[in-house]
Amino acid sequence: MVVKIIGTIWRMSVQASILILFILAVRPFLKRYPKIYSYVLWIFVGISLLFPMSISSPFSLQPNLPESMAFLEGSQDIGTKTLAPSEKVQNPAQTSGLSSENTGAFGTSHGQSQTAMQPDGNLRIPAENGVSNPDDKPENQNLLLRLFCILYLAGLCIVSLCCITQYLRVRRRIASAVLEGGNVWLCEAVQSPFVIGIRKPRILLPYTLAEPEKSYILRHEKTHIRHHDPLARVIVLVCICLHWWNPFVWLASHFMEQDMEMFCDESTMQYANLNERKAYAKTLLSCAGRQSGLAVGLAFGESNTERRVKNIMKKRKNNLIVLFCVILLSVFCVAAFMTIPKAAEDQTKSQEAPVYFDDFALNDGVVYKGHPENEIEDALPLPVSTDYCAIYNNELYYTTDYIERSIDHVVDGHLTIYCCGLDGTNQRKLLDLPEIYTIMDMALRDGYLYCAYHKTENDDKIHIAKVQTSGEGLTEYEFSGEYGGLMLFWKDRAYSRSFGLDGNLIFYIHYLETGETKELYRCSGYFFEDYCVWNGKLLLLLYDNEDLTLFSVDEDRNIKNYGSYTGSLGRLLSGKSTYCSIDTALYRLDEKEDTWIPLENILPEGVESHTIFLLGEEGDDLYYTVSGEVPDNEWYNTFLVQYNTVLGQNKLLRTYYTP
């Protein structure tokens, strides 16, 4: 959490720096006009430094930055090798002919199997298979990340402590101040007048002021209070504390205070004649000669005195044309520098990984089992008895109808889906299908429950029910044709595949709202391994008896071949990020470069590993099982692993036996 917050602040600082540079470039052109024009522009800088930009605009001139900087969120990828599309990857661990049915799975419809669990919570260190030790590069990168966070927090504390110390020092020095009247105080420790406080601002004056000087000074300081400048000064200090490392923020603070003081001078002398301006300037010079050094308040003569005197002597008039231009300039600043590019918003808006129904459910690193009467250890029982369930947003979705798992056959021809809390409370019915023979897939994604099924044994149509997880908005669709299992769902579309009579593999896209079905891709010479949806593209993993090949196909049938990878078993998963496992190798898709990057993979020690089976994604954690063998122990062959994609660390959560 701390890393994400620091990354967000870093991104805000970079984006605000661009706005600061623009205002500094425009500021000289406003020199001849009232300072309120340039002073108002600094308000936009303060907003950019304190509030993350989330509104997208096609007019945005901001760079395409991620939600938090890549070197903070993705430290595990530093220094990793990017695979060229044509490069063939040699996997460190070869398979031994295990089928996909032997890998074990939770929360997915791919390769479902019954598993028994054994407790094992140890953190594993790789000993072989060419995988580096966690004390090596990932640990060094994590150390660098921690040092960066410590450095930032140390700087934040030091700058904040300096501001607080200075404020307390001033409060101590003015403790002997005497109330003269209203909010005006006299203090012998003060050499130059200033304002202190926000809710009840006080004007501090030295005893030595003559009456003509005192009159001008009070008018000036009361103008500061009327403009709410003490509050603006505190906001500037907060920005400096949060963005202490950014020199542009310090520069903006300097010029903003110049514009603030000059605007205050202009407002004070707005209706003054030449003699009054001369007297005011003389008072300003007099106070500058006895500066107090108390920068915590708004001091009368302690900011750019020479420029202020020259500015006072020039009586400026408002110009409607200039005012209109400044308004347009303000609108431009908001549209161009206080929004994010729309393309960037589309890219950073991550899709949600689907959660498929199974006889196990995974939530926050914990495995739940629906039949506690079975001899299964270290699995939390669900509050209901079910063999078909999923956990989504900390709620349990399940059916009490019996389903023959080998063919997903609904025995009684009736299917009802319920939802409740993990403690069994707040039960509600989501879906009731009175006529159903076989389930093709059931998934939860983006706030919807999807169910693809056949109504009868000889049904030649795919039926899809889609309902919000709140239970509202039930819609049913049907598509004719010979489509295979493993349906995918994304937004208003469904994806399926079939095997043609000529041996071809055919992939389809079904538009739910229009009922249209379109063929996306057809190929021969391959066996189907897995597929997923990535931002409207279909990612395909196909096998040709020698290697696995990765493809992507978009709606316009544009095809990209990422190359072949040595291995025989692979899985795909697409959510916040997109992953591919090939045997025991793990890859992540770099969406900007459109290439696959290998990730450090820590496998359980002493395990002869065969394959990785991707399960799901929760926040920054990726869950998968590792199928393997432990010498001299036939009761361990499947291992549930939690992989933190921010820290690049793996943790062994559970050990299973898969018959």
Give an overview of the whole structure.
- With 659 residues, the chain is of the alpha+beta class.
- The strands form 10 sheets. Strands 2-38-37-36-35 form a 5-stranded antiparallel β-sheet, with no helix packed on it. The chain has a 5-stranded mixed β-sheet with strand order 3-4-6-5-7. Strands 9-19-20-21-22 form a 5-stranded antiparallel β-sheet, with no helix packed on it.
- Mean pLDDT is 79; it is low at 73-138, 344-348 and 372-376.
What helical percentage do the residues reach?
Answer: 25-40%
Give the overall form.
Answer: elongated
Query: In total, how many beta strands?
Result: 38
Structural class: alpha+beta
The count of helical stretches stands at: 11
Low-confidence stretches: 73-138, 344-348, 372-376
Q: Work out the strand percent.
A: 25-35%
Instruction: Sketch the major β-sheet.
Output: 5 strands, antiparallel
Distance between the termini: 40 Å
Give the strand line-up of the largest sheet.
2-38-37-36-35
Rounded to the nearest angstrom, the radius of gyration is 33 Å
- Mean model confidence by pLDDT: 79
List the helices and strands and how they pair.
Elements: H1 2-26, H2 36-50, E1 56-57, H3 70-73, E2 116-119, H4 137-173, E3 178-181, E4 184-186, E5 194-196, E6 202-205, H5 211-226, H6 229-242, H7 247-268, H8 274-288, E7 298-299, H9 305-312, H10 320-337, E8 340-341, H11 342-348, E9 355-356, E10 360-363, E11 366-369, E12 380-381, E13 389-392, E14 395-399, E15 403-404, E16 409-410, E17 415-421, E18 428-433, E19 438-445, E20 448-454, E21 461-468, E22 475-480, E23 488-490, E24 493-499, E25 505-511, E26 516-523, E27 527-534, E28 537-543, E29 547-553, E30 559-566, E31 570-574, E32 578-582, E33 585-590, E34 595-598, E35 608-618, E36 621-629, E37 638-644, E38 649-657
Parallel strand pairs: 1-8, 4-6, 11-12
Antiparallel strand pairs: 2-38, 3-4, 5-6, 5-7, 9-19, 10-11, 13-14, 14-17, 15-16, 17-18, 19-20, 20-21, 21-22, 23-24, 24-25, 25-26, 27-28, 28-29, 29-30, 31-32, 32-33, 33-34, 35-36, 36-37, 37-38
Helix pairs in contact: 1-2, 2-7, 4-6, 5-7, 5-8, 6-7, 7-9, 8-9
